[in-house]
Write a structure and sequence with these properties.
Layout: H1 2-18, E1 20-29, E2 37-46, E3 51-52, H2 60-67, E4 72-82, E5 87-96
Antiparallel strand pairs: 1-4, 2-3, 2-5, 4-5
């Protein structure tokens, strides 16, 4: 019986450590031509969004400013989930000139 419990605990620990998901979503597009610059803004959420690291913001404005983009061509959003949703990283990528 102890071997079964240890085996289940091991399997549960492996599942917790190895679980990961990435979701990509297009946000918006404009009529501006595809640019050569790409700006990224990132935020990290812990415990399913209850706690954010350093009050980071991953908005379009911050991503555009990080690369010096004034004319946005399109915007993508990415969400990565680790450890069964305990740690969530959110990215906003802005492309343009």
């Amino acid at each position: 019986m102890k071997k079964v419990i240890k085996a289940l605990a091991f399997v549960a620990a492996c599942a917790l450590v190895s679980s990961c998901a990435t979701i990509s979503n297009p946000v918006t597009a404009t009529t501006n031509p595809f640019g050569t610059k790409c700006g990224v803004a990132k935020s990290t959420l812990y415990l399913g969004g209850l706690w954010s690291s350093k009050g980071e913001e991953n908005g379009i404005d911050k991503a555009a400013k990080s690369a010096g983009i004034t004319r946005i061509s399109h915007v993508d959003s990415y969400t990565k989930s680790y450890l069964l949703g305990i740690v969530i990283e959110q990215y906003t990528k802005v492309y343009g000139e």
